[in-house]
Write a structure and sequence with these properties.
Layout lengths: L2 H25 L5 H22 L11 H24 L2 H8 L2 H13 L5 H18 L8 H26 L4 H22 L6 H27 L2 H4 L5 H14 L5 H25 L1
Helix pairs in contact: 1-9, 1-11, 2-3, 2-8, 2-9, 3-4, 3-7, 3-8, 4-7, 4-11, 5-6, 5-7, 6-12, 7-9, 8-9
C-alpha cells in the first residue's frame, strides 16, 4: 500500500477515535478541563508504554530531537485543554470543526518552519477557511459562546503546531509511539499540580467515562501520528474533516444537539475549501 493511502486510512481512524473521545469528555459531566485532560493522557501514556515495550523500542529520543519533542508536547497540551473546554461549552460539531482548523495552521507553520512550499491557491485556501471559521465563532459581543469559540480556535492552532512538529520529528526518524509517550508524560506532569491541589471529586461512572475517553484518545493519537509521518498535511488533511460528521451524529444522538444555520454554512466553507485544496494538490502532483 502506498504511504499516502496509509496516511488516509490512519487519519480516518484518528477522526473517529477523537469524535468518540470528545463525546466521552462531554458525557463525563461538569469537571475541570485540566482534570479531564490528565485522565485522558494517563491512559495514552500507559498505552504508549505498552506498545514501546512490546516492540522493544527505546525510551530515549533520537539525538537532537528533545527540544522538538518539548515543542510538540507544549502545543499539544494547549490544544487538548482548549479543545476540552470548547467541547464542554459548545455544540460538539462546532468544537470539532474549530479544532479541525489545525490542518490550515499546519500548512502555515510548515511553510514557516519546515520550508514546505505553499503557493497562492493554498494561501487563499487558508484565508477562506478562516472566514468559514468566523461563521462558527460568530464574533459579536452578544454571542455568549464567543469566548469558548475563540478558545476552541486556539485549540486548533495548538493542534496544528503539534502536528507540524510531529511531521518534523517523523522526518528526523523519531518513532510515533515514543512521540505519543513523551507528549502524554509531559501533559500529565504539567496538569498534575492542578489535580493535586484542586481535585474535583468524581463518581465511578465519571472515572469510567474519562478512561474510555483516554482509550479513544490513545487510538486517535497513534493514528494521527502515523498519518502525518506517512504523508504531508497538504496531501491528507482533508480526510480529517470526517471527524465533524462523526461528531455531529454523536452530538445529535447523545445530546440532541443541532448546529445552527451559520455553523452549518461555516462547516460547508471550511470543508469545501479543504476538499478543493486536496484535489488541486492531486492535480498538480499528476
Amino acid at each position: 500500500m502506498k504511504t499516502r493511502y496509509k496516511g488516509i486510512l490512519c487519519i480516518l481512524c484518528s477522526a473517529f477515535c477523537f469524535a468518540i473521545m470528545n463525546t466521552m469528555v462531554r458525557l463525563s459531566g461538569d469537571l475541570p478541563s485540566i482534570q479531564k485532560s490528565f485522565f485522558r493522557n494517563v491512559v495514552a501514556l500507559v498505552f504508549a508504554y505498552i506498545v514501546i515495550k512490546k516492540n522493544k523500542e527505546s525510551l530515549k529520543c533520537q539525538p537532537g530531537n528533545f527540544k522538538y519533542l518539548i515543542i510538540r508536547s507544549f502545543f499539544g497540551t494547549i490544544g487538548v485543554l482548549c479543545n476540552f473546554y470548547a467541547v464542554d461549552h459548545l455544540v460538539l460539531s462546532d468544537a470539532s470543526m474549530l479544532n479541525k482548523m489545525s490542518p490550515f495552521f499546519a500548512i502555515i507553520l510548515s511553510l514557516m518552519f519546515l520550508k514546505e512550499k505553499v503557493n497562492l491557491v493554498q494561501g487563499l485556501a487558508v484565508v477562506i477557511a478562516f472566514v468559514g471559521s468566523l461563521f462558527i465563532i460568530k464574533p459579536t459581543f452578544s454571542n455568549m459562546e464567543l469566548i469558548p469559540s475563540l478558545i476552541g480556535l486556539l485549540g486548533g492552532f495548538g493542534a496544528g503546531a503539534a502536528y507540524t512538529a510531529v511531521r518534523f520529528l517523523g522526518q528526523r526518524g523519531e518513532k510515533g509511539s515514543f512521540i505519543v509517550f513523551f507528549f502524554s508524560a509531559f501533559s500529565c506532569l504539567v496538569t498534575l499540580p492542578f489535580l493535586i491541589f484542586q481535585y474535583a471529586p468524581m463518581e465511578l461512572w465519571q472515572i469510567g467515562t474519562l478512561l474510555l475517553a483516554g482509550l479513544a484518545a490513545a487510538g486517535g493519537q497513534f493514528a494521527i501520528t502515523a498519518a502525518y509521518s506517512y504523508a504531508p498535511a497538504k496531501e491528507i488533511s482533508v480526510f480529517d474533516y470526517s471527524q465533524v460528521v462523526f461528531s455531529a451524529i454523536l452530538g445529535f444522538f447523545f445530546f440532541g444537539q443541532i448546529p445552527d444555520v451559520f455553523s452549518i454554512l461555516g462547516y460547508f466553507i471550511v470543508c469545501a475549501t479543504a476538499i478543493g485544496m486536496f484535489f488541486y494538490g492531486k492535480k498538480n502532483k499528476s
